[in-house]
Amino acid sequence: MKRVNCHLCCGCFFMCICFFQIGGIGYLSQIISSPTSSESLRIEAAALISQLTAPEIVSDFRQSRFHQHLEVLLRALTDLMEQSRDPLVFLVASSAVANITFMGSIVFEFLAQDNAAKILVEGSKEGKVESLNIKDQVVTIFANMAEDQACRESIKQYEGIPLLIELLQTQVAGFETEDNKQASDEVVHDAKLCEQIQQKSAIALARLSKDKTCAAEIKQLEGISIFSRICRTSSYRNKSVPVLIACLAALRRLHHALGPSSFHQDDIDILVRPKMIESIFSCSSMSEESFV
């Protein structure tokens, strides 16, 4: 039955809507949270939740059906992430959590209660966050959690900032190619994932910098110099302009939180003080990039 549900929801948008209307979310909530459910059954339920929370499902309708089950679902998904040793299970569960983090501020209260930041950091330390796809889900969760004060405190408490700075420096091997030589489809795909990981990491760190204690830790971990290097050297950001913009925004937030004494004057003159578009062009000209 569970595999039939997955197939139906994957194959037809109309069937997804029907699944919502007949109370399927409550059914999934019972399966994934039940102590009698096997791990394989909970994984199937998590996979279906991930599909049902995908952005292409109509937002308002989806949220109205999920709202009453969010606390139970998030607790079950974070438990699955914590308990399983399989990175693929971590990917499935974190993908569902990442999608749910776009459903509003109530989600952050539950994630703070469930120690989601701790589970993400421990998952990384245990080797569950190695693939680019998993890293992308992790930084999505962190970036959205960083909007909330309680979650920012949790991220700092459980050493999420060092992990985010590590993810900020994600690069893809083989992306630099010779003239007239096309990168493989796999490398191009990985480069796109790297761009998303770096961009979301920068967004998460910028949002964390709303708290001066978080901003101070980012500085202590050489985050300011890392942001500067990524802005100035296109190879450190896989030649991505969106990553450049996100890093410039993070530097400006850090400058606001910490003041000019935490920055080299050259960084202030080029990366912080000018208008954003002027800094973008300055950094791009350093690497001979083009926006055309």
TrEMBL record:
The chain crosses the membrane at residues 12-32, 88-111. The keyword Transmembrane applies. Residues 21-292 form the Protein inscuteable homologue C-terminal domain. Pfam families: Insc_C. InterPro entries: ARM-like, ARM-type_fold, Insc_C, Inscuteable. Keywords: Membrane, Transmembrane, Transmembrane helix. GO terms for biological process: apical protein localization; asymmetric cell division; establishment of mitotic spindle orientation; regulation of asymmetric cell division. GO terms for cellular component: apical cortex. GO terms for molecular function: cytoskeletal anchor activity. This is Protein inscuteable-like. It comes from Holothuria leucospilota. The lineage of its organism: Eukaryota, Metazoa, Echinodermata, Eleutherozoa, Echinozoa.
